[in-house]
């Protein structure tokens, strides 16, 4: 039974924290050409809820030497369990020594001193996106993706170390989808992954039923939908769409 596997990954979103609209227009254009979506945020009050809701690939902070709010915003992002794994980069002036120290204390992931080559920041962003979109299988056969951990033995799912109960079939579906995030799998392929002994006579609609249950379970635990339906194609694990 052939599998339809289509790469439907969305363009990663970068939050740009800046009070300078000209900087956003120029830098946003550079990121757009490189395949990123961008969104401008001006202050901590905007950044925190948007980052928690949209889970961007990274936050890039346009830091001014006399603006202490950037370090405070970074500290808030890194102290919140919902946003602490979002990479944060800071663009700083060479003379902003104290701000540099404050940002490091706040947990910033990387700093770039002005003037900087855009290629260096793009390389850093691409590396973070690649790491974010990759699943890791441990020597014990467990699957790890971001805050998720799927333990093969016992069919147990954890998110941020909190157990999410689900039956074996939904576990197998989630594991198959999560092994290749963003890839759309056909219903036939998911049947082979979840109950291969019945692959020849399983009703394709039963996949929809189990996916609906899986989606409901995950949405209740995470507060958002991470299973994407692609019409006439199938389903994908898409935590960032």
UniProtKB/TrEMBL annotation:
SMART domains: Trans_reg_C. Keywords: DNA-binding, Phosphoprotein, Transcription, Transcription regulation, Two-component regulatory system. InterPro entries: CheY-like_superfamily, OmpR/PhoB-type_DNA-bd, Sig_transdc_resp-reg_C-effctor, Sig_transdc_resp-reg_receiver, WalR-like, WH-like_DNA-bd_sf. Coiled coil: none annotated. GO terms for biological process: regulation of DNA-templated transcription. GO terms for molecular function: phosphorelay response regulator activity; transcription cis-regulatory region binding. Residues 140-239 form the OmpR/PhoB-type domain. Residues 13-129 form the Response regulatory domain. The modification 4-aspartylphosphate is found at residue 62. The keyword DNA-binding applies. GO terms for cellular component: cytosol; protein-DNA complex. Residues 140-239 bind DNA. PANTHER family: REGULATOR OF RPOS, TWO-COMPONENT RESPONSE REGULATOR ORR33. This is Two-component system, OmpR family, phosphate regulon response regulator PhoB. It comes from Neomesorhizobium albiziae.
């Amino acid at each position: 039974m052939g599998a339809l596997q289509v790469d439907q990954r969305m363009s990663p979103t970068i939050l740009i924290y800046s009070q300078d609209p000209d900087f956003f227009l120029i830098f946003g254009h550079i990121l757009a050409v490189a395949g990123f979506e961008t969104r401008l945020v001006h202050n901590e009050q905007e950044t925190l809820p948007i980052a928690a809701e949209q889970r961007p690939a990274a936050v890039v902070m346009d830091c001014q030497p006399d603006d202490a709010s950037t370090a405070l915003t970074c500290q808030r992002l890194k102290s919140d369990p919902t946003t602490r794994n979002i990479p944060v980069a800071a663009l700083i002036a060479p003379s902003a020594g104290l701000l540099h120290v404050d940002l490091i204390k706040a947990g910033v992931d990387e700093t770039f001193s002005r003037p900087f080559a855009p290629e260096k920041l793009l390389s850093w962003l691409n590396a973070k996106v690649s790491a974010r979109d990759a699943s890791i299988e441990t020597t014990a056969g467990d699957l790890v993706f971001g805050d998720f951990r799927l333990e093969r033995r016992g069919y147990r799912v954890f998110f941020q170390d909190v157990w999410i109960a689900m039956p074996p079939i939904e576990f197998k579906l989630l594991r198959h989808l999560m092994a290749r995030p963003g890839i759309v799998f056909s219903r036939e392929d998911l049947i082979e992954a979840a109950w291969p002994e019945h692959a020849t006579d399983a009703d394709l609609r039963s996949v929809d039923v189990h996916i609906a249950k899986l989606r409901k379970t995950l949405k209740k635990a995470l507060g958002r939908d991470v299973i994407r339906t692609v019409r006439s194609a199938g389903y994908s694990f898409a935590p960032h769409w």
